[in-house]
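Onboarding guide, step 5: your first structure request.
Type a short instruction followed by the sequence, for example:

Predict the 3D structure of this protein.
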Amino acid sequence: MRPSTGATGTILTVLHNSDFRTIWYVGSLGEVGRRMELLVLSWLMLQLTDSYFQLGLVFAFNNLPRPLISLYTGYIADRFSRSKVLMAGQVINILTAAVLLSVLAYDFNLIKPWHVLSVVFIQGITKSIEDPSRRTAIFDIVGQSRLVNALSLDVISNNLGKMTGPIVAGILLDISGFTGAYSVLLAVHVTNLALMTKLRIPSYGGPRQVEPIVRSMKGAINYAWKSPALVGLFYITIIMNTLAFPFQQFIPAIGRDELEVGVVLVGLLVAADGIGQLAGAGIMALSRDLRFHGRVFVLGCIGVLSIGIVFVWSPWYVLTFMLLTLAGIAQSGFATMQSAITMLSTPHDMRGRMMGLLSVFIGVGTPLGAAEIGLIASSVSIQIAISMNMLAGLILLLPAVFMTPLAWKPLTEAEPDLGE
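The system replies with structure tokens like these:
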């Protein structure tokens, strides 16, 4: 086995590829729409219920589809046209937004909390459908040598969405209310579908031998179990998505109730994490000959958890914004290396399924974590709920740091027959 850096080019060499630029635009605009919709629906739930627990359920339902269907969507990514899979997900987004907009325009009083939960659940389904196909399509387009640079740019596109989506949503909610915000959101989805018609992904006919779906998924799970790097990565992924990242759903409540600001400044506060991730991803996109992917991944986790313990106690808006931005920089290391480690540790004809398996581990703890934080916040306080989760995450991170090779050894190229 030989060291596999996954980063021998630069950001400019990746951007010279017109197909990559197109999928980058698609990812950027798609994340703008997703983040806009999540803030609009979270604010809608707060207005309807004034409940931290119900606010947590928005995030829980948004991530519930991941553990339920992601293995299947990974299988789909390995078997079918990735362009068509992406377009199908976007069509569902358009139809869902159109239906909710119609109800909002007809009579706002008809909207109930279960409508909000249904919409975020469907959004979670389309995200689960699209992610394995989009990430593996990026690999197909740029190849292994430019993967980290491409994934860094993909993280940049995600964080452009995380940064601009909440800001735009907050301004639209302040100016034109829920109907105006959802009208713009529908236009975003339609525009992204039009962009997808121009996307050309190198053809990949799937694995050489077509296996039954259950056997195919079992093979992916067996492969991951035999890889210490993947075991450590999936373990940490569960910890972070259960105990750390659900805090983001409660930023609107922190802004409204603890910092006492309006929806525009709430939108800016939600965007702080995206601003930080954008800066961090930009640094990694310029990296050369990166070998210790796991070390960047682990340090990013430690940064998010440490900052998460203290930011909730800040009494000042500016300080809270700065701390969330720093947490975003740390999270960029986690997000970029999570996908890079998964794909560089996996044979070509299993990458879609392994990305689907990763999505399962991302989603398996997120609904529980979001509901748990909301329940504790409703009973005690948001500050205690988030701080307790972050501290528990730091403690549970230690076994993976010392018992897996993630932080100590450079990543090595996948052996195709490891899971056979």
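Each response can be followed by summary notes, for example: The radius of gyration is 20 Å.
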